Amino acid sequence: MNSLRPLWVFTVLVIGVVAGYGLQIVATTQGYPVPVLHWTSLVTMGAAALFTLIMGIRIKAFTSGRTRKRVNPIAAARTLVLAQASVYAGTTIAGWHGGILLGLLASAPMSSSVVKSSLVMIGGALVMVIVGWVVEQFCKLPPEDPSDPEAKTKGKDDQGYAAGTN
């Protein structure tokens, strides 16, 4: 499995900003409301971040040696994928609402509900990104003792992620 690449995350952010800005301009000129997520979306985002964190803590307990309970390799891989998906989803949501906010700066007062909603969604998205990034780090195994020839391949894949086979 590959680790997150900051350039790809930044690219997703920029695409989200451009898309949010463009659609905000098109929607408002056509008389439609600004396409912003409702505040209740924070519940879903919070649940996804919490679930990702709980799964990551299970992997971290195993990789740090605090528990001997084996981790299913598929569960470890799914946790890593979930963490990376959280980063990309959070980046997309933050970019989208950042673009909307950018488009509204000139036209809407800073006290409008759309501006407040965009700011709240950007904050929630940043929490998702941070949790995803931290959980991805939880999934990495610490470096092994170089004098142990079996330790180099046992329990991790090519990128150093936990395989859960110890």
Automatic annotation (TrEMBL):
Residues 149-159 have a biased composition (Basic and acidic residues). InterPro entries: DUF3180, MFS_trans_sf. The chain crosses the membrane at residues 7-27, 39-59, 80-106, 118-135. The keyword Transcription regulation does not apply. Signal peptide: none annotated. Residues 143-166 are annotated as: Disordered. SUPFAM superfamilies: MFS general substrate transporter. It comes from the Bacteria. Keywords: Membrane, Transmembrane, Transmembrane helix. Pfam families: DUF3180 (PF11377). This is DUF3180 domain-containing protein. It comes from Paeniglutamicibacter gangotriensis.
